[in-house]
Amino acid sequence: MSGFWRRFATNRGAVAGCVVFALVLAMAAFAPWIAPGDPWSMAGPPRTDAFDPEHWLGTDMLGRDVWATIVHGARVSLLVGGGATLAAVLIGVSIGAVAGYLGGVADDLLMRFTEFFQSIPSFILALLIVAIFQPTVGSIVVAVAIVSWPPVARVVRAEFMSLRSREFVQAAVVLGQGTWTIVLRQILPNALSPIVVLSSFMVATAILLEAALSFLGLGDPNVMSWGFMIGSGRSTIRIAWWTSVFPGIALFLTVLSLNLIGEGISDALNPRLHERGAA
Amino acid sequence: MTPAAFAAFLARRLMKAAGVVLGVVIVAFFVVRLAPGDPASVIAGQSGAADAQFMEQLRRQFGLDQPLPVQLWLYVKGVATLDFGVSHRVQRTVASLLVERLPATILLTGTAFAFALAAGVALGAIAARRVGTVADSVVTVLALTFYATPIFWVGLIFILVFAVWLGWLPALGMFTVGADLSGLAAVADVARHLLLPALTLGLFYMALYARLTRASMLEVASQDFVRTARAKGMREGPILRRHVLRNAILPVVGFAGVQAGQLVGGSILVETVFSWPGVGRLAFEALLARDYNLLLGVFIVTSAMAVAINLVTDIVVALVDPRIEVEG
Amino acid sequence: MSAPLLSVSGLTVALPPGGDRPHAVEDVGFDLARGEILCIVGESGSGKSISAAAIMGLLPRRLPAVAGSIRFGGRDLLRLGKEEMRAIRGREIAMVFQEPMTALNPIMPVGQQIAEVMEAHGEGDAASRRARAIELLAEVRIPSPELAVDAYPFRLSGGQRQRVMIAMALALRPSLLVCDEPTTALDVTTQAQILALVRDLQATRGTGILFVTHDFGVVAEIADRIAVMQHGRIVEIGARDEVLSRPRHDYTRRLIAAVPRLAGREVAPRPAEPPLLAIDGVSKVFWRGGLLSRRTPVHAVRKASLSLARGETLALVGESGSGKSTLARCVVRLVEPSEGEIRIGGTVVTGISQRAFKPFRRRAQMVFQDPFASLNPRRRVGEIVAEGPITHGTPRAEAIARARELLALVGLDPAAATRFPHEFSGGQRQRIGLARALALEPELLVADEPVSALDVSVQAQVLALIADMKKRLGLTMLFITHDLRVASEIADRIAVMRQGEIVETGTPAAIFTRPAHPYTRDLIAAIPGRGWEAARG
């Protein structure tokens, strides 16, 4: 593992990603201290220009401080990103593991099911679910998870299929180990790396999805979110561009940092691929 | 592929496509069913237009007095005959609204898909060809950037920069209102309106395809048959075009086809930002008015679009890749 | 003698810094005359393939040629520019690679791939190139070349693909052909055909052939001269019979001694007693295809019957796809037989539940082929070896202590228990795999090609170890192999399988001196280097 960390630490993008993501995490954790007060309430005169000494990212049409909304918005982004990814990984790993381990008809059926969810416009399905079940953080997490698991299932299935036929797994069968022992002790530990890589990309995607839902007015009305701010500033983009632009930058940096981390992990886990890229 | 084998492949593939659409209809049915309360009140509940007559109309449409399988059957049969019910907001059939808005969405998503695939493959190929150079880094950074940018925000920035500040392109709509153009001038007008939305929708996927193409090209370039081609004394250009690129593109196109649904779904955001008069914009309007019948219709129709794109890419891949026929 | 076709001297290829040695190839020199076959023979990592790649100008960028010269046609190939070298490749020097399955572009018809050689060197037009491709396919004896020219590689067998590769190499009548292990991935009967084809080409066209291989049988079959490589250097070079029968270098002697002997040993018949393992009319059918596609049956094993007496070693030999591995897997229940009965120690074990079978898992263990895939990379060696006893109820500490003893038994340092598999060589990993199987103190050992992924010298050691364990522990062994030499070395009896059927069973002496079935005869005739065998004595 030391080799992994050494390779990861020499990847400039990944380290930068870690730094940015750590800042976002800190922002979310200490939001009430960094930007005290309710981000929804009026903090200053409406439509204060950006770079104002009082409100350095400006205020929106209702006088809300843009900086405060960004600080507080980080919370729901990370909550949905983390929660939905966790749920999606659980669904995806279960389905992929069963399909890959059992093979045959079970695999056929589960993979058609997965392919189905992958090929439909999942964003519209998420929209539909959140709209019909009322927008709350819970329903958003569920909706995002429901549309995010298929890639995990596919990757896990491929890993399980290949590992299952590997001789060390057959050896475990011949030794008399039970199915659960084999899955948990022999196969899963060897399938973890691609799941970890995929997860960090999925957190990024889930954050983007949450933002898109909030942008369309389907965010949880009780929590401040970046997507909501971008959406609410949309109609006034000509006169108060900062209300949409800065939350967008926060979103961009967070997603970028997660992608960089994911890529860093991937490169560090597969040094040979990286070498070939550099050859 | 022989014509007979191709016909068999096509038949199999069409069946699969029909299966997906059927699945979508079933999912739509159950999403409404799973919500708390009876479907008629879910659909009409928050509309504020829940008069008795409308509720009755809904109950009939969903056959709520029947057992669940019969209800499902009625719903599937309805959709199969293009009966998506009525939109209470405008008191028109959902089908007529969809038909009206569909061409704009097909134009937008089709353009964006073609652009994303062409530009993505081109950039990915350049990066792979010059791996490790400045060109590679530029493509990598571009791809990372667009892959991390929310498309609705890109749309807003484009409007701000190209429409508001620079004034080069129109910000909203599909036509210049009141211009009453015809012929080529009308086409040019639509094209000017199309440029920003198509770019907005396409850039994210371009980034994705560029990354995939780069990885796929590097993977193929390390395979044995490329070494064989070198041993033949072929020049690098033809090796890259005939052996590397052709093999590397297949999985990218296949993936793009499977992912077409994501791009079609993204059109809701883009059409909302640019007021593009397509089904995506319709979905946003339906959302604002809590017009779920219309929203379900949009879900089913956009799914069908995604399935159609996937069908086309699968056929293209099958025509290039001889192994498809056997795998079935 | 006129100037040699190819003259290599002082060739040195650097390895990237941080390797176990500074050079992949060091100070390699040899001449190759027109119409001569020079075999470069060596174990993995000896630098033989790198030498071949250097001649083709196909060295990977990480491995540059840093010294020496490769003189061909009056030029030094190492001093040529990219374009000049390209013009030589395919036209004057051609190459055939090891893996026919991956060496052809999967989405281009083979005729077109052959035509590309001519196209790359500006020969002919599309129609004449196609005609020539058909001609070449006929020359390498591909059936119905007019149809094959439009076939995609996946339609062809491994042997046919290798013929296509040879056709491609011959397209422009090169004066030098470089073959890098061209028959290693092929079955022995196919190998014999390809070797005959290569010999034929040399005889009729006078092509000079540089033939890289690890297999002394192949060397004995086709070489005019032999160069033996070790650790990047040529340790011995000379005429074939000279090197084979009077090797001067110690390494050459050891290598040749390690090649198993093809001897028809006579084995005393065993006293009649109930067999430990009885396989009775076992068949296995796999179904290919899915929900929507047509399901087609694949008959992997058809009505196979065998029996093994206690303490006996039976070698199951056959080519790839003969069903030998499937049958072995039926015995340890990695595969459920479709019909028939298997008895271990007189008890029927087919059709019983996994739970009821568990006690038999102790009695029947397995050793696998691939030293890199048969050990879980994320578990320590001690845990791997102890896993079986722990599964069957041995306390963990006791099992780990026993694992250390077993590691010593198979010739490893007991300290190996705390290390991970990737820290070991292929031969050491096979020893670990053997220790894992022995940990359960089985009566029956199923060994599935346990030495075929190993270099010949390591192979000899592992074979000796297996034979020793068998004797000391009184094991009964079902030994699966494709290699008749290995079978003759280890087995008391040999069973020959073809297309799922056991066509013949007998003692090594009976099989080798009086083969009854025509397929057995073909198989024995195809063993490379049988002429040399007589001379080995």
Name the shape of chain C in a single word. Answer: globular
CATH fold node name of the largest domain in chain C: Rossmann fold
Shape of chain B: globular
Into which percent range does the helicity of residues of chain B fall?
over 70%
Q: What value does the Rg of chain C take, in angstroms?
A: 25 Å
The biggest beta sheet of chain B reads: 2 strands, antiparallel
**Discrete helix count of chain C:** 20
Helix/strand-derived class of chain B?
Answer: mainly alpha
Average residue pLDDT of chain B: 86
What would you report as the Rg of chain B, rounded to the nearest angstrom?
Answer: 23 Å
The termini of chain C sit apart by: 34 Å
Which regions of chain C are unreliable across 5 or more consecutive residues at pLDDT < 50?
none
Low-confidence stretches of chain B: none
Number of strands of chain C: 20
What does this protein look like?
- The complex is a heterotrimer of chains A (279), B (328) and C (537).
- Chain A is mainly α.
- Chain A has a single domain (2-278), classed as Orthogonal Bundle (MetI-like fold), CATH 1.10.3720.10.
- Chain A has helices at 2-9, 12-29, 31-34, 66-102, 104-119, 122-132, 137-148, 150-164, 167-175, 179-215, 226-232, 242-269, 271-278.
- The longest helix of chain A is centred in the N-terminal third of the chain and has 37 residues, at 66-102.
- Residues 273-279 of chain A have low confidence and may be disordered.
- Helices cover 78% and strands 1% of the residues of chain B.
- Chain B has 14 helices and 2 strands, in the order ααααββαααααααααα.
- The longest helix of chain B has 39 residues, at 183-221.
- Chain C folds into 3 domains: 1-92 and 175-257, P-loop containing nucleotide triphosphate hydrolases (Rossmann fold, 3-Layer(aba) Sandwich), CATH 3.40.50.300; 100-173, no CATH class; 277-536, Rossmann fold, CATH 3.40.50.300.
- The mean pLDDT of chain C is 90.
- Chain C contains 20 helices and 20 strands.
- Chain C has helices spanning 48-56, 82-88, 110-120, 126-139, 145-148, 158-170, 188-205, 216-222, 240-245, 250-258, 324-331, 354-363, 381-391, 396-409, 426-438, 456-473, 484-490, 508-513, 518-526, 530-536, and strands spanning 6-14, 23-32, 37-42, 65-72, 75-76, 93-96, 176-180, 208-213, 225-230, 233-239, 277-288, 296-308, 313-317, 339-344, 347-348, 364-367, 444-448, 476-481, 493-498, 501-506.
- Chains in contact: A-B, A-C, B-C.
- Chains A and B meet through helix 5, helix 6, helix 10, helix 11 and helix 12 of A and helix 1, helix 6, helix 7, helix 11 and helix 12 of B.
